[in-house]
Structures are given as structure tokens and as C-alpha cells.
Amino acid sequence: MLSKQIIRIAALSTAVIAFAATSGGALAQKKYDTGATDTEIKIGNIMPYSGPASAYGVIGKTEAAYFNMINAQGGINGRKINFISYDDGYSPPKAVEQARKLVESDEVLLVFNPLGTPSNTAIQKYLNAKKVPQLFVATGATKWNDPKNFPWTMGWQPSYQSEARIYAKYLMKEKPDAKIAILFQNDDFGKDYLKGLKDGLGAKASMIVAEESYETTEPTIDSHIVKLKSTGADTFISITTPKFAAQAIKKLAEIEWKPLHIVSNVSASVGGVMKPAGFENAQGILSAAYAKDGADPQWDNDPGMKKFFAFLDKYYPDGDKRDGSLVFGYGVAQTLAKVIEMCGDNLTRENVMKQAASLKDFAPDTLLPGVKINTSPTDFAPIEQLQMMRFKGEKWDLFGDIISGELSN
Questions:
Q1: What is the value of pTM for the model shown?
Q2: Is the pLDDT assigned to residue 381 strictly greater than 70?
């Protein structure tokens, strides 16, 4: 009888051990959604390689080069990145077409850093309905930080409203009697920025004496600049994409209008805007930054920028280190790589968003010292700090403190 009990207990113990082993195995099992396997992760991207915002195309090229570097180093957790990037020409209907292609034909795990406020607005509902991450979008519209209504969409750069509020703070302190003329792009990008500026000025919004909007289909904005000069404004704010920002700088010089000139961060690239506009025409322009400037020698011995320069030399030798768009592409790609690494073997779309919303004091190589990425399930705005800067010679000079442009609800 005793021996039977012993056998029974032994059998039971074996069963318990076997069960524990299998359930432990289940816990460690790899989980995949469409677009991820043991060897590969498919990442989709949409960029304006052509059209009025084609200057931003180098962002997609930088990201492709970054993932080539990651793959050459063995991938992320042993998986190679298959980066599929399409051109939408900065056209919302084309963006919708490309998003559908990425999700339904290419079957990507996520859509990463699609560029442009109008394009992202056009694909947001579709991607959220499909529960496909629209991750680290390349636009600073405030609406990307809306986890309650759009849990699959997250921004990356500081919001346009945050940035505009910083300029408003600066003007109220340094030039409280300014007469402000504004040129803005007639879309969500321009309007969002304008709202931030007016909110920031508050009761002093009467400082704005003129507003002119332009369409991205216009070949030139010269007539708008001439009209704004005639208002007698002594401060000019350019809420424009690179092509039009460079045009504005040139036209101001041509008509000898010398207001205090502020350009939005998205058009502060030395290589993409200031150089084409003519360095002599860009002196004294103000903007704000959250990333280091590849054209500035002060970063030559910075450990993070040394990695960036080494990356360019080996993986994107045609890239212009003075073009801020390359710094942007590298920083955002590094952030995605961090999120994928955090996902481990759970490469579901849900876990990608969960990890993206769990970043704590992450500092990509290219962000300014003191600027860190923080997210939470209720905060989908990774970067909320900037520092003012002034263009001098052939580079930007930072001044003042790192300022938070966080929106107070």
C-alpha cells in the first residue's frame, strides 16, 4: 500500500513539474502580430520624397540608413528591420493610398514617422480603426497627444502649440510692444501653430497686426511678404515648411524689410533652409531647438554627435550633416529602436504602443543636453522642451534656459 502511495506521489510530482515546465514555456513564448517573425520586423513609412515638402525626404533616407546600420549590427533582439518607405508627395489622398498598401499588401507591424500634418490627419482614423500603430509621427500637431480617442497614434517632436507658446513668452518679455506679422501655411500645421501663438500671447494677442496664409501649391510667397511689410510690422513670424521659409528669408532681404524674424523649428535647418536662402540674409533670425545642430562645432566632441557623424560617414555619406532633418531622422529612428528592444519577444501591436508609452528619461544621441523623452499611458507627447537660438555666421547660437512649452490644460 505504501509503495503504491509513493508511486502515486512520485507520478503527481512529475506531473506538477511537467505542468510547471510547460506553463513556464508558455510565459516565455514569443508573441507576434502581422509584420513580425523570429527573423524580421516590417516597418512602414510615408515621406514626401517629391512635391512641395520634398526637402524632408532626407528624413526617410536617414531612417533607412539607420536601420541598415542596426541590421549590420545584428538587428534588434536578433531580428532584422525591413523598412518600407513610400512617397506621398505631401498629398493626403496619396498618403491614404500608401497607408492602405503598407497595412494590407506589405503587412507591416506598424507605420513609423509618416510626415506632415495633412497626411497624418488623413490616415489617422484608418490606422486607429485597424489598430496599427501610427508611431512617432513627423509633425508637431497637438492632436497626436490624444491617447483616449486615438490610442494608436503618438507624436515625437515638441508640439507646434508648445513651441509657439515659447515664442510668445519670449516676445512678451523682450519686445512687449511688438507689431507682429504672421505668414502661415493654410492647413492644420499652420493653424495649430497660430493657435499656440495666440494662446501664448493671451490678452496681448492684439500685438498681431497682420496674418497671411499661403497654399503649398503656390510656386512663390513673394506677394504675401510684400503685403505683410506694408502693414508696418516690426516682427515677422514664419510658420512655413523649408521651401517657403527659404523664399521668405530671401524676399525680406530683397525688399530690405528688417523685422525681428522668427522661423518655426521645422524650417530651422542650416543645410535645408539657411544655406539656400543665403547665410548673409539669415543673420539674427530666431528659432527654438530641442536637438543638437550638426553644423555647430560646439558638438564636434560630443559623444552622441560623434556617433551620429560616424553613422553618416559609413551609412549615409551623401547626407549633409548641416541639414537638421538628418539629425531628426536619426533621433526618431533611435527612439523606435529603443521601443522595439523594450518589446523583447512580444512583438504585438498592442505591446509596441504599451512600450512606446513607457519611455522614461530616454535621451537619443542627438537631443540637447537636458531634453529627455518621457511618455505615459496618458501622455503621448514624448518631447516638450526647447531652447531659444539665434542665427549667427553659419550656425545657430543657443541662448537662455531649456524651456518647457507644456500645455496647461
A1: 0.84
A2: yes
